[in-house]
Prior knowledge:
- The complex is a heterodimer of chains A (415) and B (344).
- Chain A has one helix at residues 315-318; strands at 16-18, 20-26, 34-42, 48-54, 59-65, 73-79, 85-86, 90-93, 96-103, 112-117, 125-131, 140-144, 150-155, 170-175, 183-188, 217-220, 223-230, 236-240, 248-253, 263-269, 274-279, 293-297, 305-309, 345-349, 355-359, 367-373, 387-392, 397-402, 408-413.
- Chain A is an all-beta fold and 415 residues long.
- In chain A, the strands form 7 sheets. In chain A, strands 7, 8, 9, 10 and 11 form a 5-stranded antiparallel beta sheet that branches.
- Chain B has 10 helices and 15 strands.
- Chain B has 344 residues and is of the alpha/beta class.
- Chain B is 29% helix and 24% strand.
- In chain B, strand 3 and strand 4 form a beta hairpin.
- In chain B, helix 9 (258-272) crosses helix 10 (328-338).
- Chain B has helices spanning 29-37, 85-97, 117-126, 128-133, 148-154, 157-163, 178-191, 222-229, 258-272, 328-338; strands at 16-23, 45-49, 61-64, 69-72, 77-80, 106-110, 134-144, 167-171, 197-200, 245-252, 276-283, 292-297, 300-301, 305-306, 317-324.
- The chains are: A mainly beta (415), B alpha/beta (344).
- The interface between A and B is medium-sized, with 40 and 30 residues.
Amino acid sequence: MAAEGTLRPGGGAAQLALNMKLLGHHELAGFGGVGEGVNMQKAKDGRRILWMAHESAPKNFTAVDVTDPRNPKMVVQTDLPHNDVRSNSLDVVGDIMAVAYQTKKWGLKPAGMDLFDISTPEKPRLISHFDTSGPHSRGAHCVFFVDGEYVHLTSGAPDFEPTHQKDDQFYRIIDVRNPSKPAEVGRWWYPGTRKGDSAPPPPRHPRFDGGYRPHNCTSYPKKPDRTYVGYIDGGVWILDISDKSKPKPVGHLQYSPPYNGFSHTVLPLLERGYLIVSDECVRDNGEDWPKPTWVVDAHVESNLVPIATFPLPPAEIFTKRGGRFGSHNLHENLPGPCSFRSETLIFGTYFNGGVRAFDVSNPMQPKEVGYFVPATPKLAPKGSAQINDVWVDENRIVYAVDRFGGGLYTLETTF
Amino acid sequence: MPESPTATRDTLAGLIPVSIVTGFLGSGKTTLVNRLLKRPEMNRVAVIVNELGEIGVDNDLVQVSSEQMMLLNNGCLCCVLRGDLQETLRDLFIKRRNGEIIDYDRVVIETTGLADPAPVMQTLLTDSMLRDQYRLDCVVTLVDAVNATGQLVQFSEPVKQVALADRLVVTKTDLAAEEPLETLTERLREINPRAPLRRATNGEIELAFLVDVGLRRSRADLEEVERWLGADEDHEHGHRHDETVQSFVLRFEKPMAWAAFTQAMDVLTALRGPDLLRVKGLVNVEGKSGPMVVQGVQHLFHPPLELAAWPSADRTTRLVFITRGIPRQVVADLFAAIGAIGTG
């Protein structure tokens, strides 16, 4: 019997889908909570391996063979050394994988980044650990690693003392050309967030103080002199990194307040001159609504102009479906051999709004063209699916992951 | 790194197909729809009807949410058309997106027996919000084997229903003798020579005959295009023409300027819009690599869509016209006069 007020078998918790069909589902051996690190390796033996960083302890990362997306098979699952650290983020280039480590408190270890040799996916081999722990550091939250040479890292550092405890991570460029000896070559932080800065500390967000830290720092070989940063409550930054030792800001967009902060991912459409910017929803039940995905005109980097937001389903309904509802991660058009790349089709995750696809051919009128919201996973703590991150492969197969117990969903698109 | 081969959206492929089931009073529309809903493939259909009681009488009811909607036990949704079809289709999509109703993957609209299907088709062609979500898949016209011959003489509605059809289904054939049935078939062929025709008893008809008729992807192959356009042979010769309704195909071998094509169609719709019952076809437009898809009902046309590629080596413009009292020559002369185009 359907829930009252709905005309669907299973009621409001049932799967919702438009133009995305479920091909396969893997619960990751009972540890189905995945963070925001999902990337695909084309192994030398031809297998397609999806690597996922877990959202929280006890698991570190899991690899699943998705050569047949209808029948995903777990290859390896690893553990963290203790429960006060999480990996959350990873990236893969060839057979090298970078994994972030962030601790719950300052001063704990391991904090920083590991580099693994994953040429045998069943046996990831640690190459090196880049330690970013320190008296005022929780380590690294996010890695962006696509060229095999530099990791664009969101991290604290032993020598960095923030002016506010929430501003403890910043942008660091790590040279990994010799993966045995990663070394910082440049860094940039929001002026005023480090003790000793000449600039005053930036104002706190009046309602939701998320902090002034980078989230994703994206930089593409196609435009190697730029890094695009979602700086949480610090808005969107474009940095000129033509001299990696001295990143220089060339563009900034601040729209919070009045919006509710947490600028998360900046996806540049490099051919077309637009940015797609997602703000992360970080509160349950619509408390910090709206958390839009923006289309920003970046034709003039020094004057970034938001021109549209993605059409999301109605907040009055989805904020009552349990847990978070709003924007989070985007598929980032990575340059690897297995990654989908498009200047017009954008895939994003929206927690209980599932994974959703938009056509931005007309940047002023983005259109929703598909979505998939899984049925509520077993024992879901929020009473709903909380889709956290997405990877899309070159064949437009979509890999969406749940933040808590749902694991991995593989989907095909029909648009 | 270049974009992926799949980087762009196929603007046709993501649309929800809509079937219109029409036919004069007593032609068996409800019986046919009820039969279709029993098919396992048709388990996520939203049916729009005029009265709730008609559909699913032999279905166990799962739930009625209001006087206007009910869920059938096979998973389908039944919805009453109140007032405006435009509003009903929009409302259904919004409720689907909100998770309030099933994720229907097809809409079936059952018209009333006296309905003119043209406005229903026009709603799908012209409303921009509906066009983003739905596509017209098929107009199925049911014809009562016993009474239709008389009805086609007496009334204008059934003639138009037949003329606009993509598929014709002659029903109650078990109650009719073979000879009058043949006369009726001939009459239907005169009104609409291109729509494939089948006979059915008790609404039994193969599903494949009725679904996936309209173009459903921009990389449509030859079979899909031919299925949509109907029989390709020109029935002009060797048939007695209906006094009012005619069907013909215009072919142009040379590519034409889009401006010339639209000008010709603008003149035609301005002067004879109400009599231009249906137009569909592929146009070879100068400078375009794929054909432009043209679909219109009377004076309203769907915005043109470009297919990704021609489905075969034949790049002839093919336009199927179903008109009321507009002879082929008039339309051909108009095109000849407006554009510097050969008529093949």
